[in-house]
Amino acid sequence: MRIDGCTALVTGANRGLGVAFARELLARGAAKVYCGAREPFDTGDARLVPILLDVTDQQQVDAAAASCTDVDLLVNNAGVMTLSPFVASESLDGARHEMAVNYFGTLAMTRAFAPVLEANGGGALVNMLSVASWFTPPASGSYGASKAAAWALTNGTRVELRHAGTLVTAVHAGFIDTDMAARVKVKISPASVAVATFDAVEQGIEEVLVDEQSRTVKAALPDDLATLYPAIQELWDARRARRD
């Protein structure tokens, strides 16, 4: 897909990676970028059009699809992480919130905009996933579950929308320098993720492994119980020991 001259919509576009996606789209010549966020904000650029969009609110999703009928590139970027273990968390609230945003929000946006993309020639749909799509540290267990669900959604959507000429691209990365990973020391820049993502879109690539961590984990999947989980178990046991 050619980004120069396109009209894009980025969810979660008011900070972090969403801002980087919007800026990179403009740098590549996008004519307009709708910037979805739960609260209105000043983009400072006439080409960046803010829209009220909470991906967990079906009415707002439908309203966006009805008003942004010129979109030919959708970037499902909105996401949350609550650091909720499966068993050790106090309630299911964190898990429900992560699934609501990371999986059901992505699904709602995909369903709403698939006809829009088709009407505009097919275009492209980008889902921002995670290395956590493939392995699950218990400290952020329900986040991993939501991203694994979103990965499954992405793969199935790709098959469903191929007839419409829509490119569906999955983007996997480890820790990115955003608020979500504020306490992590080693991380990659949002700008580098945006560059890799739109390089892939312009080249028609269906899956992007942005960093070394995502490439290493994906390669380890055939033997993940032996190669990935012993270290995860060690970290979890050490965490429990500190609490005890």
Provide a descriptive summary of the structure in words.
The protein is an alpha/beta fold. It has a single domain (7-243), classed as 3-Layer(aba) Sandwich (Rossmann fold), CATH 3.40.50. It contains eight helices and seven strands, in the order βαββαβαβαβαβααα. β1, α1 and β2 form a beta-alpha-beta unit. The longest helix is centred in the middle third of the chain and has 27 residues, at 93-119. The model has no long low-confidence stretch (mean pLDDT 94).
Question: What characteristics describe this protein?
Answer:
244 residues, alpha/beta, Rossmann fold, 7 strands, 46% helix
- Output the CATH topology: Rossmann fold
Mean pLDDT: 94
- Estimate what percentage of residues fall within beta strands: 5-15%
Corresponding CATH superfamily: NAD(P)-binding Rossmann-like Domain
- Shape assignment: globular
Q: What is the level 1 CATH name? A: Alpha Beta
CATH architecture: 3-Layer(aba) Sandwich
Number of domains: 1
- Global Rg: 18 Å
How much helical structure, as a percent, in the residues?
A: 40-55%
Structural class: alpha/beta
* Sheet having the most strands: 7 strands, parallel
DSSP helical segment count: 8
Low-pLDDT residue intervals, each spanning 5 or more residues: none
SSE pattern: EHEEHEHEHEHEHHH
Distance between the termini: 54 Å
Spatial arrangement of strands, main beta sheet: 3-2-1-4-5-6-7
Please report the total strand number as a whole number.
7
Short description:
The protein is of the alpha/beta class and 244 residues long. The chain has helices at residues 16-27, 58-67, 93-119, 141-161, 190-203, 212-220, 224-227, 229-243; strands spanning 7-10, 32-37, 48-52, 73-76, 124-128, 167-172, 207-209. It has a single domain, classed as Rossmann fold (3-Layer(aba) Sandwich), CATH 3.40.50.720.
